[in-house]
Amino acid sequence: MFDLIGFSDQIDKLINNYKNNNLRSSIIFYGPKGIGKRQFINKFISEIIKMKFNKSSISHHLNLYLNNSHPNIKLVEKELDKKTKKINNNITIEQIRNLKKFNSSSSSLQDLDKIIIIDSADDLNLNSANSFLKTLEEPNNNSFIFLISHQISLLLPTIRSRCQKIKLQSHSYGDFKKILTSSIKELNEDEFKFFYDLTLGSPGTAITLYNDNIFEYVNQTIKSLYNNGLTTDIIELSKNLSKMEDDKFKNFLSVLKSLLIIIYKTKINNNSHEIFRSHNFKNLQNVCSYLSYQNIIDRFNFLAMNEKDLFTYNLDKKIFVQKFMIT
User: Fold this and answer.
1) Chain Cα centroid distance, residue 275
2) Strand 114-119's sheet: what is its strand order?
3) What pLDDT is attached to residue 289?
4) What is the pLDDT of residues 232-256, one digit of tens each?
5) Would you say 26 and 139 are in contact if contact means Cβ atoms under 8 Å apart?
6) pLDDT score for 84
7) What is the DSSP string of 95-106?
8) Contact 71, 101 (CB under 8 A)
């Protein structure tokens, strides 16, 4: 039910710490989006359940957890707004208030610790983050809080300082391909390599990009990087991208960051065939010669500095893309 490919040393260490009553009460699991941080936590919690309950009731507890209805395990993530019928941009302060009630209430199962999962802590806004901080400052006995973060720098320093931090790295190509094969059957070898290079070893991101058909925008984006000024191609691309829903657009922005990293690596190493597996990225020398080091850095900084404001203040995606392209 909760199989895990990769991270074997880290999961074993965590399980041993739990068995020896040496597990920190609050832990941030961080690393690139889509590498399997949630699956890692799922596997860890399933092992805890196996330790705590007899064989006949394990499946029952795992199913309760899977459906987010377990009395001792609470998952907090962005929810559907009842008015707009869209997923909220943030985890709301009301969700954190409900979480506090869960954390402070007496447990109906004495055999199992209370466990809270925040997926992801990056989605806390300022109000909900400050409210959540109080939960971290006053931990309960026999309770654990697991936070997932794709970009740990987005978290309040006060939240980071109160948690143990465990970094999960990108997968090896072998593990990446195993994970992808279980979800996508139609890819040939070079397509596997392409997605590995593009997502920097993140199978979850690769599956999302494949399902969202974002791949079609990759070549258009690369082509647009050659242009000077606001061309017809850039305007058309920005119009198409502006129609994306927020989560899909965030996935596209992750592609942009990966492309910039790939171009930068290729520029500093003329032997790009030694860096990338896919033929698609072994032939980026033309783009590299067109863009300067500073221009690549400026574009990356533009994304890093403005991405959060784009979604926080619901800014115009079309203008955002155009500004990126002419930076």
Assistant:
1) 24
2) 73-76, 114-119, 143-149, 26-30, 164-167
3) 82
4) 999 999 999 999 988 889 889 988 9
5) yes
6) 85
7) HHHHHHHHHHSP
8) no
